[in-house]
Amino acid sequence: MQALHRLRERRLQERTALCNQIRGLLAEYGLILPQGVNVIRRRIPELLEDAENGLSDLFRQLLAQCYQQLQELDEHVAFYTQTLEIQNQQNEACQRLQTIIPV
What we know:
The protein is mainly alpha-helical. The protein contains 4 helices and no strands.
């Protein structure tokens, strides 16, 4: 269980670092995005499609790769989260804790 928590936390940190890096790179083009992974998820496809925003072709390719990496990290986080939820349902001690502590 501890390994699952640690691996999930590591992927969350990687995702946060990637989002911050993307925001920094976009800022160099004068495109300022608010913090938050949901903003990045929503705005990158829009930015890739907008031919008028001044992004170079090379940067668009790099941004598309970053977006793909973000999606992969999201899949990893979802896998670890789902696995933790399944383990919690199967673990008697976790079940008892959930009756004491509201989830």
